[in-house]
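User: structure tokens for this one?
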Amino acid sequence: MEKSISTSLSNVIKENSVKKEDFSVVKGYYEAIKLYDNLVSNGLAVKRGNNLKSIDKSVTVSIKFNAINI
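Assistant:
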């Protein structure tokens, strides 16, 4: 029997409860976001876009000591 996504989501919501400790963590994230936005608006920080590079475009540093490249 196939379940719809809404049925699955409602089951997840019913089975999982939010604890009081989770609210303090979320509140900390919101405080950090506000602080970051304040720094950006004051010109002290710059918002970055998606800086992730694929493996083929990533920079790899190779340091060799006492090695001979042939």
